[in-house]
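B., you asked whether I could sanity-check this one before it goes into the benchmark set. Here's the sequence:
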Amino acid sequence: MKAVMHTRHGGPNTLELRELPDPEPGPGEVLIAVRAAGVNRLDLLQRQGPGVLPGFSLPHIPGMDVSGDIVALGPGVEGRHIGDRVVVNPGIACGTCAECAVGQDAYCSRVQIIGGNRPGGYAELVAVPATHTHVLPPGTSHVAAASLPTAYGMAWQALVVRGELRADETVLVHGGGSGVSMAAVHIARRIGARVIVTSGSDAKLAHMAQVGAHATINNRTEDVAARARELTDGTGVDLVLDHVGPALFQASLHSLRLRGRLVFCGDTTGATAAFHLPHAFHCGITLLGAGSCGFADFGAMIDFCFGDGGGIEGELEPVVDTLLPLAEAAIAHHRLESGETKGKIVLLPGNAAVRASGQRANPVTRAKNAPAARSASSSAASVGRRIAGADERPPAAGPLPESAATPKVPTHS
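And here's what the prediction gave me:
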């Protein structure tokens, strides 16, 4: 097979397209012909070095976000078939540690990440556990599916699992233009929440308005907290999603209403944040850290995005910045490092035409006779039902669990 790998740390030029032996699926694994692989910041960090994840080693094939077709089954696989079109949950918990034993597999200290510390999707073929594949509804594109796992998984964990965002609440999202921010806008709108997005770029804010933000704030030319309160009639927002770190941490706290929630899940502007303690505790502010999706949470996110979602909005369409052939992975890394992306960068095996930035992925065609959108209250209830099984344990082998079974044909994309 052809695969992009790096044997040393450094710039994008360390990425090499090579011919490698085809991987063989082991017990409980399936072999996937990769049709689309999303590019993530972790790919850049691991390439630059040193490796971020425990167990990382060189040479390495990146690529956490994988969508493709099953072409071979390993021993003992049940519930999957050759020809199934699937998206992959990249986080593979050990299943035996103390965290996994109590259903907290998102915090597994021995977790393996496809494309992180085991071979990933920058390749024509990749072997993954069958239990960590989710069959795509008919009509869902591989490009749309490969846009979801990391960005939408993080946004889901922050907004729904940790932040418990509800219909009719207002959420302030930083880092407009990033994949996580666009995912947050889509998920929040489907829940029925109002979304305000900040960025230091007017062009990115304009794009976020097109994506679905109800209001925007330029964090370089405007007072974020004052503007957030103005947009909420002086009350403040219910929830802040911060994945940029210390640059806007204090502004986030002042943007919140009494007993508001600040969910943080990134550190792009630094690893240490300072804030005014009296304001935080006098106002009853809740600080919530959010990491990666656990097994059950990932399944709930896929169902929400590719099922009907239970939301009051229509189709959920991931925004693609650029499509590139696999051989141009270095260009993809240059593009992501530029900070000018407006959506997801996706690699495709073989020769692929480049798509202009900011286009929708058009993942699913709406089914005929789709039911009318539900009310905001039923939206929130639906989300609650979907995450109710969050303590489900990821199986090590054997038949596929219900959360990983083939989803129903959606009424919304």
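One thing to flag: The longest helix spans residues 149-162. Otherwise nothing jumped out at me.
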